[in-house]
Specification:
5-stranded antiparallel beta sheet; Jelly Rolls
C-alpha cells in the first residue's frame, strides 16, 4: 500500500512540475515587462477559428518586437499610452478610450510610453490550428 501511495505521489509531483514548467515557458515567450492574461477563449462555430480575449499589461518602456498573428487583432486602451508600429501604416500613439485593428498576418510592434503603464483589452480572431503569434522580420 505504501509503495503505491509513494508512486502515485511521485507521479502527481512530476505532472505538477511539468505544468509549472509549461506555464513558465509560456510566460517567458513575452518580453520583460509584458504580461498577457487570457480572459476567454471561444471556438467559432465550424471550428476553423478561435476568439481569444486577453488583458495585456506593459510596464512603461516595455516593447513587443515585430510579430504577426494568424488572424485579426483588435484592442482597446484602458490606461497608459501605446505606440503601435504597423507595416504599411506607420506609427500611431493611442491613449485611454482609443482602439485599433491590425489586419491578419500584418507585421507590427508596440511600445508602452508615457508616465503610466499600459493596460488594454486585446481580442484575437485567429486560425484554430496556429500559434497566437509568430516573430516577424
Amino acid at each position: 500500500m505504501f509503495n503505491k501511495l509513494a508512486k502515485y505521489t511521485a507521479i502527481c509531483a512530476a505532472l505538477f512540475a511539468v505544468n509549472l514548467s509549461a506555464a513558465a515557458f509560456a510566460a517567458d515567450a513575452l518580453p520583460n515587462g509584458v504580461r498577457r492574461n487570457e480572459l476567454q477563449k471561444t471556438t467559432v462555430p465550424g471550428g476553423k477559428y478561435v476568439v481569444v480575449m486577453s488583458q495585456v499589461d506593459m510596464d512603461v518602456g516595455a516593447k513587443l518586437p515585430m510579430h504577426t498573428h494568424p488572424g485579426v487583432e483588435t484592442g482597446y486602451v484602458i490606461s497608459g499610452m501605446l505606440t503601435l508600429s504597423v507595416k504599411d501604416e506607420g506609427d500611431r500613439t493611442l491613449g485611454p478610450g482609443e482602439s485599433y485593428l491590425i489586419p491578419s498576418a500584418r507585421p507590427h510592434s508596440a511600445v508602452s510610453g508615457g508616465p503610466q503603464a499600459f493596460k488594454g483589452i486585446v481580442t484575437y480572431i485567429i486560425e484554430a490550428d496556429k500559434p497566437l503569434s509568430s516573430p516577424a522580420p
